[in-house]
Automatic annotation (TrEMBL):
Residues 14-156 form the MoaB/Mog domain. This is Molybdenum cofactor synthesis domain protein. GO terms for biological process: Mo-molybdopterin cofactor biosynthetic process. SUPFAM superfamilies: Molybdenum cofactor biosynthesis proteins. InterPro entries: MoaB, MoaB/Mog-like_dom_sf, MoaB/Mog_dom. One of its GO terms (cellular component) is cytosol.
Length: 163
């Protein structure tokens, strides 16, 4: 890929884990995302664990947007009765990044087969900032962060900030 048009954007990341059963001590997926971002020299400006509650998830995302331009929300993207991350976050998107969810499911298919269709992974843009919603398993966060988000985040933010 020709990267000559990609801006050298300073990244400030936020990690939000959605879980009713985890806290910061037991949040292996959130810690994995932080580890991968930090390894790529990206500062973490916000980290929170919130329960599966639409208003609490929205509140955490808006709080993260104050200090971050890359927000990764993990957990709550499945089909169970309490999974509500997509319902909380997708109304915030001013533009959706449809290819993110499509590519995530394609790559997941290679790892977990047809179960990948249960994922509602999604991404979008809000005020020149990127928000990613990914499943909460450690395998899913590794795949999304390492194979999709990190290689493309500067490209995404370059386009999102063009006037």
């Amino acid at each position: 890929m020709d990267s000559s048009h990609i801006q050298n954007i300073e990244l400030k990341a936020a990690v939000i884990t959605v879980s009713t059963t985890r806290d910061k001590d037991s949040d292996l997926s959130g810690k994995k995302i932080i580890e991968l971002l930090t390894k790529d020299n990206i500062d973490i400006s916000f980290y929170e664990v919130v329960p599966d509650d639409i208003n609490l998830i929205k509140g955490a995302v808006f709080e993260a947007l104050e200090s971050s331009n890359c927000i990764i929300v993990n957990g709550g993207t499945g089909l169970t009765h309490d999974d509500c991350t997509i319902e909380a976050v997708s109304p915030i998107f001013k533009k959706t990044i449809d290819g993110f969810g499509e590519l995530f499911r394609l790559k997941s298919y290679g790892e977990i087969g047809t179960s990948s269709l249960l994922s509602r992974a999604a991404a979008g843009i809000y005020k020149e900032k990127a928000i990613f919603c990914i499943p909460g398993s450690t395998g899913a966060v590794r795949l999304a962060t390492e194979e999709i988000i990190l290689p493309e985040i500067r490209h995404i933010l370059t386009h999102a900030s063009k006037r």
